[in-house]
Amino acid sequence: MTRKWIVMLLAVLALAASVFLLVKDNPGTANTKGYKVPPTVFIHGYKGTYNSFGNMLNRFENNYKWGDKMLVYYISPNGRLQVDNMGYNGEKPAFVQIVLENNRATFKNSAYWLSLALHHMKTHYQIDKVYLVGHSMGGIVSVKYMEDYQNLKNFPQVNKFIAIGSPFNGIYDKKYFQLHHDAAAHDLNPGSKALMDLRRNKDDIPDNIEALSISSTGDHVAEADSVKGLQKIFPAPQLQQKVIADEHLGHSMLHESKRVDFLIHDFLYGD
Fold this sequence. Notes:
The chain has one domain: 3-Layer(aba) Sandwich (Rossmann fold). The protein contains nine helices and nine strands. It has helices at residues 3-18, 50-63, 107-125, 137-149, 176-179, 183-187, 193-200, 224-227, 258-269; strands at residues 21-23, 40-43, 68-75, 81-85, 94-100, 129-135, 157-164, 210-216, 239-244. It has a nine-stranded mixed beta sheet, with helices on both faces. The termini are far apart. This is Alpha/beta hydrolase. GO terms for molecular function: hydrolase activity. Pfam families: DUF915 (PF06028). Keywords: Hydrolase.
């Protein structure tokens, strides 16, 4: 057994031993038997909160009637999961929201916390396939999850992945790092070891995952050239790239844009 597989096995064992679970008393239970498409898991970005994807998922569920929110995971830095279960009847696509209490952590730590939620989905709700949607650093964390956990049987397999305004080459604005000095900011620096590792480990991502990158010409945090860095991880046959030409569509507005909504819908659920 190679050293890498030993490390990954130990990570799985540690995961199983360390998770403390608190489930809210919400009506209904998640029942994924017979779901028509894999549940879609949404991961916020750097300094993100419940509100990062809250409005988008409200539109998906209540305005467009595209699906139903099934689960919300709140994850503490010590691996404690609080699971808000809305119930699910299997009729429409299911949405799962991830909220990290420490929203300024490294890519590695954030991917580990994401893996706790996905491990719980696999073991408690028999969800063996998912779609991942990440905004900003959430897209990068999703790639880190796929590289570190995708090939382990304890976790759901990713079929489709969307990165929204994710700076895979780092954030170019030097002034950004005069204000932000935490672990996540260190990883988001162009040329950081964390970003280089994503490229070095790209072969750990299966070649059957379809990926979509969404960006905007008005995004001055995740600039177009940095967003295109995803093509150094996903080869052309697997990757689609959509650039919205709108100088008023900034970084934090991407998850509030109806144009982004429909790009997500068409890629995940379109015929």
